[in-house]
Specification:
The protein has helices spanning 3-19, 46-59, 119-125; strands at 27-35, 44-45, 61-74, 77-88, 94-106, 109-116. By secondary structure, it is an alpha+beta fold.
Length: 130
Amino acid sequence: MLQGDVDRLRRALEHFASTGEPDWSVLHEEIEVHDHDIPDAGEYRGPQGFARWLEDFGAAWSDFHLEPEDYLDAGDSAIMFVRMRATGAESGITVERQDAMVCAMLDGKIVRLDYYNNREQALEAVGLQA
């Protein structure tokens, strides 16, 4: 992974955390999202699929906030660790956990994003131990 790619991911996540809007310029036109936290998640492909994933993810919460914590160069991918704080839309229960996104890059853009609800799953996905 190039340092420029990791920096681009950092800026994109900070942009999302502060605005609630994705940085569309960092998403590859053929992006695939695989959410390992949503039971029976559908396929999310392309910018429209990414937008649908955000809607599906957000539907479970009355509000949520992702706070960037750390970034790890994992060779062919980068892992973004985030602190997720959310309140269940139906339950009203507040959740705080460390989530992670494994991002594969192509031409400086995210071509695949795998979302995990914990650090250990993300590390295992790229062949590293927690």
